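dumping this here so i dont lose it
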């Protein structure tokens, strides 16, 4: 029995080998037959075109998008197909081994030459078409040209916007027109600059060559180049949307002319007239006293923070007229205060590794906005948030341990992660507000709101049960393992911005001017503030949730006081 099995095994091995050999022979024979029946001849222009050779039909080549008819008249060498060779083997080609080269290789040469011919002939047309397309009528403003751009000494000195993913010409135009600017300029495909004075130094049109990040076929400037549009005609409909904010009634400085760089005296002066005048002069403040209009910035000589009695100005304010005497009305124009918008990475690596630590939803992004504008340096992040990067937080893409940023955002609370930092700003917010903010971000992004369906679903109580304990443990762990801490309460920062921001900047060992801090106050909200508080017609926190959160609040408050920090603000406990 064993002998018979051995013979069967031996036979199967031979049959397997035979089958493999026959398959290989069949494939080789088929390849040789194909090579003999198909031949490509590389015909040089100097040898002429035999009568039995034919060029590809121009209409066919145009139809498949290979070459234009005029390219067939070119004196350059062509790769031609011998049509008779497709019918029978040629006997006179045995003199050269060239025909034995792989057919696929020669077909690749054929396609490559055709493609090269096609692109070389089409490139001027495509370039011209692209240039013509980039400033089409769909862009409502008037294209003024390509101009030089220096980010440090900007010629368009108004508002600045970034969108490294969705920037379009129309978006930039509307943003500048809405803020009462006359010109909109785009650079680097993603940056939008506004102003009322046309740049002086023109550049070559072809130097504006970077495609808009959010609009294919349109150009958004170039490297140190601005594509500038006039948006004056867009301002008329935008004027209804422009938001001139009433700042209050303030005691006028002793010398208004020295305090404010621009002024206007106009009989029957109105708020609209003064605001329009100051907007054209690119100033964020419009100050009215009687028939006098003054334009400028918040400064140490005139910090519009502590107003006089509202009743003294309310009547005249409601009538769109200004008071006389020593009081003046102050309005925020649509123009952005740009004295603090320049930012950069640290030129040398920071010796002190500083964290900006908070529980999610505690205002970390807002604090980063304030720090960046106050210090002039980018902040980094332990994570990478594409939405933040696209809105101008360029430190998001920098490695968090590069030490090129002034501080690093983190929500981590483990011992190892905390001890990596030399010091930290610990930002704490009311847990009720933090939980709601993080829940909104989780389900609707940085600027959206979760739906009522989300709030009433099972996810919300599960979220509170897990995240409420994290809010407490985050603070407790940083108090335990943090080496050097500055505790900042979100509510106090919001209420007393300048003093608290000054503490944060000093903790970061950066010296800033009072005027720069006032500029930050003028731009306090940034691009990541939800538009108003969306009121819900129900209480999202059950009594059980409140009891749980209040216990955590008392624990954190006690821990802070135990480390000689001020306790939590009174509004935290109990809810």
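and the seq i came up w/
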């Amino acid at each position: 029995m064993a002998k018979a099995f051995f013979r069967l095994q031996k036979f199967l091995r031979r049959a397997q080998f035979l089958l493999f050999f026959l398959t290989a022979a069949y494939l080789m024979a088929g390849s040789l037959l194909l090579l003999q029946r198909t031949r490509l001849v590389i015909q040089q222009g100097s040898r002429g075109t035999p009568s039995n050779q034919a060029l590809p039909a121009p209409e066919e080549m145009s139809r498949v998008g290979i070459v234009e008819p005029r390219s067939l008249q070119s004196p350059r060498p062509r790769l031609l197909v011998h049509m008779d060779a497709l019918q029978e083997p040629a006997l006179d080609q045995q003199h050269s081994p060239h025909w034995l080269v792989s057919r696929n290789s020669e077909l690749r040469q054929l396609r490559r030459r055709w493609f090269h011919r096609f692109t070389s002939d089409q490139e001027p047309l495509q370039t011209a078409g692209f240039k013509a397309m980039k400033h089409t009528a769909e862009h409502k403003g008037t294209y003024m040209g390509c101009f030089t751009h220096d980010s440090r000494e900007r010629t368009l000195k108004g508002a600045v916007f970034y969108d490294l993913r969705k920037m379009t010409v129309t978006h930039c135009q509307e943003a500048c027109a809405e803020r009462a600017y006359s010109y909109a300029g785009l650079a680097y495909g993603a940056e939008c600059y506004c102003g009322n004075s046309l740049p002086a130094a023109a550049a070559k049109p072809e130097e504006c060559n970077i495609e808009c990040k959010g609009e294919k076929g349109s150009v958004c400037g170039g490297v140190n180049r601005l594509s500038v549009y006039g948006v004056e005609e867009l301002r008329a409909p935008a004027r209804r949307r422009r938001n001139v904010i009433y700042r209050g009634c303030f005691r006028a400085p002793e010398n208004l002319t020295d305090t404010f760089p621009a002024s206007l005296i106009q009989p029957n002066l109105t708020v609209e007239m003064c605001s329009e005048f100051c907007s054209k002069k690119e100033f964020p403040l419009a100050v009215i006293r009687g028939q006098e209009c003054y334009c400028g910035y918040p400064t140490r000589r005139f910090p519009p923070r502590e107003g006089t009695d509202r009743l003294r100005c309310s009547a005249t304010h409601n009538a769109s007229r200004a008071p006389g005497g020593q009081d003046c009305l102050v309005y925020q124009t649509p123009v952005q205060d740009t004295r603090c918008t320049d930012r950069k990475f640290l030129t040398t690596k920071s010796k002190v590794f500083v964290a900006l630590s908070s529980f999610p939803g505690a205002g970390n992004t807002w604090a980063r906005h304030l720090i960046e504008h106050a210090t002039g340096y980018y902040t980094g992040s332990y994570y990478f948030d594409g939405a933040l990067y696209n809105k101008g937080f360029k430190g998001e893409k920098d490695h968090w341990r590069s030490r090129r940023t002034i501080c690093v955002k983190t929500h981590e609370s483990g011992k190892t992660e905390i001890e990596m930092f030399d010091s930290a700003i610990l930002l704490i917010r009311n847990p009720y507000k933090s939980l709601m903010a993080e829940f909104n971000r989780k389900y609707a992004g940085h600027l959206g709101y979760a739906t009522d369906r989300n709030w009433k679903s099972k996810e919300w109580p599960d979220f509170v049960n897990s995240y409420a304990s994290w809010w407490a443990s985050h603070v407790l762990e940083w108090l335990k393992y943090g080496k050097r801490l500055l505790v900042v309460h979100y509510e106090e920062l919001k209420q007393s911005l300048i003093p608290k921001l000054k503490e944060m900047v000093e903790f970061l060992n950066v010296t800033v001017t009072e005027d720069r801090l006032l500029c930050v106050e003028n731009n306090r909200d940034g691009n990541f503030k939800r538009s108003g508080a969306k009121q819900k017609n129900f209480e999202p926190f059950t009594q059980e949730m409140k009891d749980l959160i209040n216990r955590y609040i008392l624990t954190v408050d006690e821990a802070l006081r135990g480390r000689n920090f001020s306790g939590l603000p009174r509004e935290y406990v109990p809810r």
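The CA atoms of residues 242 and 432 lie 34 Å apart.
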